[in-house]
Amino acid sequence: MTASAPGPERPFGIDPRGPRFGAAITSVLLLVVVLLGLTAPIGADLVSRALQPAALLLTVLVGLFAWGAFAGIQKHPYGLLFRSLIAPRLAAPTEREHPAPPTFAQLVGLLVTATGLVLHLLGVPGALVVAASAAFLAAFLNAVFAYCLGCQLYVLLVRAGIIRRSASPA
Length: 170
Hints:
Layout: E1 2-3, H1 17-39, H2 46-50, H3 53-71, H4 77-86, E2 96-97, H5 100-121, H6 127-145, H7 149-159
Antiparallel strand pairs: 1-2
């Protein structure tokens, strides 16, 4: 979902390299969650399951997905980091992207990881690893191949009339 700039003074949309940067960080952290989840047996009670390193790290990632989904991709900490530290060192982007699909992708990531975390806390074996693996796959595809599964789902749902396309960013 790319768009051209409406004028030289204020470009339309976001730099698509920002969400890819965030996806790279997220994929590394999710891989750590998977590895930690595979090496630790499921705890006997809720407190021990909640305090496992994989569950703690996934809780942080659930919070970051929630931040991106509800505050918007432009206000996500990875986006702020990209704009302040990385983007000034790069050439201007050749195209811009509407922020709605990556923001929707954050919501999808939130739903997947939160479901895995809740099921893990309820004692479902493997739920944390399966959810983190699915989220890792999506983040990895975005980071390495610029293929955003959540963005593609957004486009399909808009075309099907299930959700409405959000307004253009100001």
